[in-house]
């Protein structure tokens, strides 16, 4: 079932990181192709003509777009090892709900933390922490959102951990002080090779964010 697997990606993309983790968890060998988002490749435009965005997972010449859909596809195709979604339909629905929550809340609020200032930034920080606390509540006393093993929600959320440092530096606040259980979970995830090797260095991400702030004229 393996066939030829190619990932069109961009190193700081938390969405691409999800797919990298899922492939690593399953032990799938693939070709990684770094995209220049200011000069998108013909292959990217051909494989994702609708959104023209990374990541794009190409399996045997056929594209799968959108990171959470890619993670589910990987889990379904390589279903003989390291399951990411629960077998129980209700538990699977709950996992999809929280992964969707991460998409709807964490990305936008995290972006607002570094893109804004003053009162707008304070509001974004408050809402960001509130959303993380809701996730922390869902985690409870479990080792992972998936229970004893890394699961779908873990894969959806952990890439943002590589951006937490940049959010904290730009927003002048501490996520660990507000959400200690969540940071303990993140450190647990980082002990897994599949995660550690898929996430970029936090300082490198912060430098990238500073570069973006200059490009957007946010000082």
From TrEMBL:
GO terms for cellular component: cytosol. It comes from Hibiscus syriacus. It holds the Pfam family GST_N. This is glutathione transferase. Residues 88-208 form the GST C-terminal domain. One of its GO terms (molecular function) is glutathione transferase activity. Keywords: Cytoplasm, Detoxification, Transferase. The lineage of its organism: Eukaryota, Viridiplantae, Streptophyta, Embryophyta, Tracheophyta. Its EC number is 2.5.1.18. It is an enzyme of class 2 (transferase).
